Fold DUF2498 family protein.
Amino acid sequence: MHGNTSAINREALLVEANKVIREHGDYLHGMVASDVEQKGNVLVFRGEFFLDDQGLPTLKTTAVFNMFKHLAHLFSEKYHLED
């Protein structure tokens, strides 16, 4: 199921992911991946989505979504979560 990917624990992956976030050109203050889970061959990252008081998306929401999508593409090709 995991092909040519290496096993990594959740904490180590989050450290790597947050380093990528901080160094990325689209980084916004407060953007952080706080959780990750394995969905098939895809790593799904989660964190604060910066919704407004009514629970609606803000401009930051799109940036965070795009960053988590970037992380999924980047890390799903390299890693799978240890069981």
